[in-house]
Write a structure and sequence with these properties.
Distance between the termini: 44 Å
Number of strands: 13
CATH architecture of one domain: 3-Layer(aba) Sandwich
Structural class: alpha/beta
Order of helices and strands: EEEEEHEEHHEEHEHEHEE
Largest sheet: 6 strands, mixed
Helix content: 25-40%
CATH class of one domain: Alpha Beta
Strand order of the largest sheet: 9-8-10-11-12-13
Number of helices: 6
């Protein structure tokens, strides 16, 4: 697979002049960091798949992760070329000629969910990830307006991404793992975002067996986790760990 990057000078945040009311009741001038909102269109074999708003980092990983999690792409090895335009407004993926072209379809039956393979986990891994989520999310610390996602294996963070969208942050992590040939079935994901059904669905489609979140899941997300054997864990700000669902094979001695 070849790739062409041309968006390295794009900024994830900018500083703007603002005013803040201090403790004395006076307005003070400050410089405030705000997140950039970037428009991106993703093409597969010349067909526009989706347009989205994102943080302008890891755009090609975002495209790979989005197509993979929606089952429009089955393997990064199927991709012959990834080309990003000069301004980072589009990412175009071309499949290898010997790969059957997949039809772009919104029919959920074209890509049915399959159960994930449960893996064991340890509470110290979850606590370590929670601590990192509070301290190592640089763009969030500056702007307070983005989501973060960590990819980890046995407590070790392999990659992290931030984006104005929790879905985008997750897709960037998945796309990075695909490029690095990291087996997702051996990993855990930690997201700063809430977990409704569409987030659980995406994680299951990627084949990741453990999802951890700062926010509780919805009832529909929990139902998906139980049906497709996704270990679903929550962690509160005070360090309390909640296990919403865990298949028997993932028993960690609780």
């Amino acid at each position: 697979m070849t790739a062409a990057k041309a968006y390295g000078d794009l900024k994830a945040e900018i500083c703007i002049p603002a005013r803040v009311l201090d403790g004395t009741g006076r307005w003070q001038k400050i410089q405030l960091a705000v997140a950039e909102e970037h428009s991106l269109e993703i093409f597969l074999d010349g067909v526009s798949v989706c347009s989205l708003a994102c943080t302008p980092t890891y755009l090609e990983e975002l495209a790979l992760g989005r197509l993979f999690s929606e089952r429009l792409l089955w393997s990064v090895g199927d991709v012959e070329e990834i080309v990003t335009d000069r301004l980072g407004r589009s990412v175009r993926l071309t499949l290898r000629q010997d790969i059957r072209k997949l039809s772009v379809s919104s029919n959920p039956e074209a890509a049915p969910l399959l159960p994930v393979r449960p893996i064991p986990w340890k509470t110290e891994w979850v606590k370590a990830l929670g601590h990192k989520m509070q301290s190592d999310t640089l763009l969030y610390q500056k702007t307070r307006s983005v989501h973060s996602c960590f990819l980890a294996r046995e407590g070790e963070i392999l990659f992290s991404a931030e984006d104005i969208s929790r879905h985008n942050a997750l897709d960037k992590v998945i796309g990075w793992a695909l490029r690095q040939k990291i087996p997702l079935f051996s990993c855990m994901l930690y997201t700063s975002g809430r977990v409704p059904a569409d987030m659980a669905d995406k994680v299951i489609r990627a084949g990741v067996p453990v999802l951890i979140s700062k926010a509780p899941p919805t009832a529909q997300a929990l139902a998906l986790a139980e049906k497709y054997r996704l270990t679903l864990i929550g962690m509160k700000k005070d360090g309390t760990i909640l296990c919403y669902y865990q298949p028997q094979e993932a028993d960690n001695g609780m």
